[in-house]
């Protein structure tokens, strides 16, 4: 018989999930920024320190297929393009492993390979920006932003290939624009956010509940429940197997002892010592398995 009020419990659980989300949850962040040009403009202008950026398109959870057979595909949290044709990939990373430098390189290369059409000159390749917003300070230098651009090592001069990588310290708590932006990324409550462009969008998804977000988080919740069910089943199977192994060992101890003429009291004593049984429990096991020898 199915438990009553199952849907009510699930909806309440879903509300808890949504209330607990921040912009460091990549699924949620991607939905908030998807087709949200004002929010994308704010994000890029603050991080890059450029007030003249004009985003013309922004997509959340954009998937790139690798043109190589067997090559690794890539799903971007945010992909944006501005009025000058520059491409921006923004990723939120909660774990240090997810922000590996070679991953940033891979993201950069995947942006580049899709910007030139057949026959176009390489000079037409637009600038690309890969931005990792990390929940912790990845480089540990307590800076708000780390900018990675290529340079000629011997001359210390910039190598202008148009490729740029930024690491934003999500733990930064300064009173400047970057500090306030990162505060908003960490914040669960809309009323505590500084930036209206973000607050309005987060409020829409948290309070009104957009269908796509509700669906994606609900699917995630269901998957988590399924994982728990599988984990519980596996643990139950392991406990059953351990119990069967223990019973087999008990049987072997009793029957082999009897076969070799060991006294009952000695077998019971051994059961108590090896299997940590009480004298009464050991005696019951002896009687149970001694019958098999009769």
TrEMBL record:
This is PD-(D/E)XK nuclease family transposase. It comes from the Bacteria. Keywords: Coiled coil. The keyword Coiled coil applies. Residues 223-254 form a coiled coil.
